[in-house]
Amino acid sequence: MTDLAPQDTASDTPTVLFASPAAASGSPHVETPVAYDAVLLAGFGGPEGQDDVIPFLRNVTRGRGIPDERLEEVAHHYRHFGGVSPINAQNRALKAALEAELASRGIDLPVYWGNRNWAPYLDEAVREAVDAGHTTLLGLATSAYSSFSSCRQYREDFARALNETGLGDTVTIDKVRQFFDHPGFVRPFVDGVHAAIAELLGDGIAPTRIRVLFSTHSIPTADAERSGPRDRDFGPGGAYEAQHLAVAEVVMADIAAEIPAAADVPWQLVYQSRSGPPTQPWLEPDVVDVIEGLPDAGAEAVVIVPLGFVSDHMEVMWDLDTEAMEAAEEAGLRAVRTQTPGIDRAYVSGLVDLIEERLKGTPAADRPHRTDLGPWFDVCRPGCCENVRAGFKPAASGIAP
Hints:
- The protein is built from 11 helices and 8 strands.
- By secondary structure, it is of the alpha/beta class.
- The relative contact order is 0.19.
- 38% of the residues lie in helices and 11% in strands.
- The chain has 2 domains: 23-179 and 344-366, Rossmann fold (3-Layer(aba) Sandwich); 183-337, Rossmann fold, CATH 3.40.50.1400.
């Protein structure tokens, strides 16, 4: 397999905003220990009641001029569940799990949690950290892959929080690397798919009659093409698609090593949760469209794997547990939806491993990764993950722009 490990494209005098001295050098991997004094857990955020739904969706779509009538088309997903997204509760649980794992290792680092789109907001979390005397922060975003919305936008969130609070001269925010191929993130998916395939095979379904669909959030194709460093050719879907495909290959190879028949189970990457206008190309195929065509392809069962998600938030509950499972039932398919990492012990432990990497300045050669794409950057490269619609905004933890 071709070595696609990230390469350095930094100039001799890079600009890395709001960075610790070690990260300010612009090196792809920071191999110098940094004495961080707190972790900043960054989430997407979600409504916690019916009255929150439309204000939350206005936050999500800010700057795009979408009227409330159109927002209501999405709001019914949340209203179906009482107007409550599970994501905030899941992040509270993750915060507690991280704190417990840090304490078990004797690492004295508080964890502050803030969101992009709903309370508690990131600027509030930064102020809370500073009020407690913590100014050298290590960001941990609840997203594993490279794209504008899953990486660069969080880096822009960090920069915006520091600018809006006026704390940019006294606070630094670095960010752990994207962890799509860290063993701790991959392990829960291996476990879930292994269990699902073993169950289906045990019930007498032939491996060629099973399909594994690895599902992730669709994004505009123009954003996908620009995901990752601009000097690398990752294929038509950019680093975003390449990372998902590489992880899916690892998952299936691991299972085939333990269940030889699983080597004959077909699989593919599919997409969900598209929200753009019909005229704008987004990554395809859609998970529901694929499920509807599986019987004609000879399938009897489908394993739906939420590979792009770290927890069972709204896109998983609605697009997979509701729409995809209904499509499978209508198609006469037996369907199993596997777990997300959530607060799986391997996942939480892996996240703390990432924190320790930066505390210790672990050399890149010693950092665990399951694909040839990793280990990913500590400091994002120039032009990484451009937002085609809005251009480049100030972003922490990466070389400008």
